[in-house]
């Protein structure tokens, strides 16, 4: 599984791919200079139950740490991952 991040300064996304097939997508928007808002997470049903959504949230946490950002998870899935993962609290708004 490969997770990549792309963005244009205002919006961005994390995409999970397995053998060239898109398995999941998580989108975010910038809110100020030091905050991103995760607004949507989806996983292809063919890849359900494999931890792909959680892996994309973890990639967003690493991105936030590297770029000194905080995350506001408005997406219900991302919010649930943050609630279950205390080690992500350092980047939580």
Nutshell version of this structure?
26% of the residues lie in helices and 40% in strands.
Plain-language structure description:
- The chain is 26% helix and 40% strand.
- Strands 1-2-3-4-5 form a five-stranded mixed β-sheet.
- It has one domain (2-91): Aminopeptidase (3-Layer(aba) Sandwich).
- The longest helix is centred in the middle third of the chain and has 15 residues, at 52-66.
- It is globular and about 35 Å long.
- The chain is of the alpha+beta class.
Helix run count: 2
Gross morphology is globular
Count of folded domains:
1
Return Rg in Å: 12 Å
Please name the fourth-level CATH homologous superfamily: Gcn5-related N-acetyltransferase (GNAT)
What name does the CATH topology carry? Aminopeptidase
What structural class do helix, strand and pairing data support?
alpha+beta
SSE inventory with pairings:
Elements lengths: L1 E6 L3 E8 L2 E10 L4 E9 L8 H15 L3 E4 L2 H9 L9
Parallel strand pairs: 4-5
Antiparallel strand pairs: 1-2, 2-3, 3-4
Which key phrases capture this entry?
single chain; globular; alpha+beta; Aminopeptidase; 5-stranded mixed beta sheet; 2 helices; 93 residues
């Amino acid at each position: 599984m490969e997770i990549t991040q792309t963005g244009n300064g205002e919006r961005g996304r994390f995409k999970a791919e397995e053998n060239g097939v898109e398995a999941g997508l998580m989108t975010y928007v910038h809110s100020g200079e030091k905050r991103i808002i995760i607004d949507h997470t989806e996983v292809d049903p063919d890849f359900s139950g494999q931890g792909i959504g959680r892996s994309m949230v973890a990639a967003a946490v690493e991105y936030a740490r590297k770029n000194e950002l905080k995350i506001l998870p408005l997406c219900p899935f991302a919010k649930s991952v943050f609630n279950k993962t205390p080690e992500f609290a350092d980047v939580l708004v």
